[in-house]
Each structure stands twice: as structure tokens, then as C-alpha cells.
Amino acid sequence: MSKGRGDGRRAVIVGVATSDYPRLPEMSEHAVHGQAADRALADAGLTMADVDGFASTGFFPMYATGVAEYLGLHPTYYDETNAGGASFEVLVEHAAYAIECGAAEVVLITYGSIQLSQMGRRLGTGGGGGAGFAPGPAIYDALWGNTLVGSYALAARRHMHQFGTTPEQLASVAVTMRQHAASNPQAQEREPITVQDVVGSRLVADPLHKLDCCVISDGGGACVVTTAERAADLRKAPIYLLGAAHSTTHHMNISAMPDLTVSPAAQCGPLAFARAGVRPADIDVAQLYDSFTITVVLTVEDLGFCKKGEGGAFVENGGLGLGGHLPTNTDGGGLSACHPGMRGMFLIVEAVRQLRGEGGATQVPEAKIAVAHGTGGMLSTGATLILGNEEP
Amino acid sequence: MSERWFPDEMPVPGVNAETNGWWEAASRHRLVVQRCTACGATRHPPGPICPQCRSTASEWLDLRGTGTVFTFTVVRQAFIPSLAEQLPYVVIAVELDGAEGARIVSNLIDIEPCDVSIGMHVEVVWEDMGPQLAVPRFRATTDAKGARG
Fold first, then answer.
1. What domain range includes position B40?
2. Which of A13, A220, A251, B101 is 20 to 30 A (C-alpha) from A59?
3. B109 forms bridges with which residues in the sheet?
4. Is the ipTM value over 0.85, yes or no?
């Protein structure tokens, strides 16, 4: 990613993998990390003995050190930055900086969750519950019974009001993701759906219906970041990190979000593109966090694929499909394939697979440049990676 | 005072030096917003430092308790089990009159979900949850067509 920095070390992704998903009732959370880690290292042609850096994150402090112990690692670089759904894009960006400045040689990044098996179907509507939930400022939303999906619904309603976005346009995001999921044998939901199915499904928090919301899954993934020099001896061609950036606009209160129609992608997206030296028009395939359909509409606008307010028109009629303007979430996304809570790792894995030509039935022909963008919290955090399969 | 709406299992706010004033005012049925005494910017939720000018000096600005619906949702699936009995209920973000853009999340009550719209004028209604805790909720003062009631 660096240009002219230090001794010219350049960070690349050399291994990616997903764990089994979407239902893992027999596995512990650590076992999911372990399976994904082994597969990503094998994909790279490396072993645990090669790893000197480790990153992961979860829902309690010192999470990465716990997973590192489980994996038998004693890393001299570690990171557990938590930005919710954007975490793994941030961890890759940090790993790249560490590698480029010489602080690490091989960084393994893993994600694992058994949210579906452990918690049932609670998290998608807010998680937690009971007296004492929502410490600190989060009480200023939660006290009135607002939920996680409720916060995204407040943003969706505002977008509809300001720009005329329709429920059918939002629904078309879910329809396209389901089309892609049909080609993914692991996907949690594969039955084709129509716009009418989405808008006819139960409302969870108006205007978001059940099928506007991501699935809740078990699963995980891993990736391996090293130098381009090291990659020369490895199994697969390196995927270059061309540019990256992340940002946050507020914490967990949707009431503190400066503009409910503008996500943090509006800050970090243009910054990542500028650092990569590419434009949105150069992107061949996109992996965009799809916690809810509105998340994708805001993201395509904020990353600059269309103007603010035109996201509804951009995504409808297959705009995000394989023949559309921006083939997106080619694995079926969080809306259909797998959403274990912090899905950002899946975006990275699928972007790398597309750039290697390993996309299978949903391969975008001759994909050279991809974007992976994670969104976390209540539209609170964003992180953008621009990846390419040619040396910049 | 309307009948108690919030179940006992609702989360209760933990107060600290920054937030105590807001809840203390609420307990006396006064809706306030924090205002920086250095630059005049308002902020919500309450916090220790002005995000605009970094001053730590602030005061509580008394509001009339009226405002406008900025956006809304109708919650139809609850995450606190005992709230399930109250479904569906309306969650709103309100732009408070006199608060210079500060918004709070609350509920709109005494209205059918299909009658809620962005831009409706609302006024505060207090619900006492205990001797030291009152929660502001809102009621529409315009009908669904936007005329002031």
C-alpha cells in the first residue's frame, strides 16, 4: 500500500478462507477461528510457524490474546481493534502498516462466531436485554425501546423522505443477494425471492421487513497478510492492498449521527480511493457490508458509485447483479449467505477470491480491482479496502 | 399523566457527572439540552467536552418541550421480552425547538403507526418511572395531514 516508504516493503494478501458455515452447533467459537486459520494458512502455503503477527476481535477485552493462546501463537505484533462490522477491514489496514514498516512479516487475521447456535435469533433486533443493559450514553436510545434494526430503520425512513427512495428499491438489494446466494452451496438462504416477497415479509421496524435484514449465522474466516517479496515463493498470486482508510462519525446512538443519510463511508471511501490512486469507475467487483438493505444503498452513494440520493435507483433492476453496474456481494452477502455478527472478514475473503478468479458461478470476468467496505455499529464505523491483482 | 408504559425490566440510566443534570431536570419534568457556554453549541447526549470548541464549560438550556419528527420507525419486534406486550410502538428522532439542531430519540404515543409522518409537530409528555426518574415521550400536536392541532 505504501508509496515510496521505507525499504519498499509492500503488503499483500496471500491466503484467505472461510470456516464451515452457517450452522455450527458442534463447534466452539475458538474452533471456528482455528478451522479458518488452518485453511487460510494452507491456502497461502504457510504454517503457524511462519506467523509472527496476529489480529482478531470479538465482544470482550483481550480477545485476540485469548485466540492467540488457543492457536498456540506467541505473536510479536497483535491487534484487536473493534469497529463492529468494519473491524476486519481495519485489522487488515493495520496489518499492512505493520508489515510495511517492518514490525511484522506474516500477520494472520481470524474471525469466528457461533452467534446463531449460542444466542438464537436475538441479536438482530438489538441483543442484550433486561435491566442494566445499555450502559453509558447508549441509554439515550435504548431507554425508549429502540433496537439495532430500529436505528437502521430510522436512517432508511429519513432516506426515503429526503430522496424518494422506495421500499421496492431497498428490497431489490435483498433480491440480488439471494440470486448470488443461489450459486453458493454454503449460503444460509438460497431460495429465490422477488421484490414482492421482500416487501410482503413481516415488518420488523418500519420500513425494514424481515427480508431487508441479514441472516443470523455461525461462521468465520481468516486471511494472511505478508510482503510481496515473501509472496513470490507462496502458492498463490498475491492480492495487493492498493489503498485503505476507516472512519467513525458517532458511537451507538443514532440520535448523535450527524446526518442519518450519510454513513462514515463518505469519509473513508474517498480517502481509500485517493490512497489507491483509483476511482469508483475502476472497480470491477464490490463486497459491501449488508447488515440491512439500507446499509448497501447508503454505501454505494457514499463510496461514490452514484450521487447522494440516487442509491435507490442504482441498486434496483439488478444494478448490483453480475450484469449490473456494480456486481456486489457475489457470495450472497449477509442478507442471504452468512452473517455471524461482524461479517467484515467475509468481504475480504470474497474480494480476494474474485481477484484470483476463484469466484465460481458468480465470478466477475477479468476482475482486476475490488472494493471491500465494512460498516459497524449503528452506521457508526466504516472501513474501506481497495484490492487489486496487479502490482501497482 | 398517562398509565405507566415502561415495564420494570427496562434498562435504567446510569448517571455520572455529565449526565446527572439531564436526568435531574427530567425528574422535575423539565426537558433540557446541554449547551456550551464558550461557543453556544448544543449537544446530545450530554458529554464532558464541547465537540465544536473543546470547552468543558456547559449549562442546561431549558426547552419548551416541543419539536418536529425528524424520522421514525415502528418497532414490531422487541428485544426486551416484556416490551413485547407494547408492540407495535413508535420510536422517533425529534428535532427539539430551541435546541439548535440537537435531536433526541424517544417515543410518539397516542397515535396509530400509520398516522405518523416526518415533520409532525410534537410536544413532550412525561412518564414517571420512579421517584427520581422521569422519561420524556411525545404526543403529536398536528394531525396526520400536518395541520397544527
1. 20-140
2. A13
3. B139
4. yes
